[in-house]
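Worked Example 4.2. Consider the chain below.
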Amino acid sequence: QVQFVESGGGLVQPGGSLRLSCAASGFTLDNYVIGWFRRAPGKEREGVSCISSSDGTTEYADSVEGRVTISRDNAENTVYLQMNSLKPENTAEYYCAAGQVCSVYANEMIQGIVYKYWGQGTQVTVSS
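Applying the procedure from the previous section yields the following structure tokens:
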């Protein structure tokens, strides 16, 4: 059974940090591009970061560049998203997904086509 499970979300104060994890079972992560996405209340789902399967090339949305690091541990079949200097506007449900193209700029419709497996999401709330 294919499963993709995110964890690590929670409530954090502005300026704080969180590390999100995305653990896969039933398939091998290193065959896929892995992306992190988020959906804020009332907004379309947007790309945050992605990492390629071949050489580990990464891509970040402009809004998180310098504050977020994506990494993968193929031995553990897990991908991580380290988020630092969090802001209230980073509050959202965060999702990981496995696909074939690393791009943080694809709209939600294209995301659904390009990314095959999706996790259930983990909530990140940045508030004092």
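The helical segments are 108-114. The chain is about 5% helix and 50% strand. Compare this with Example 4.1 before moving on.
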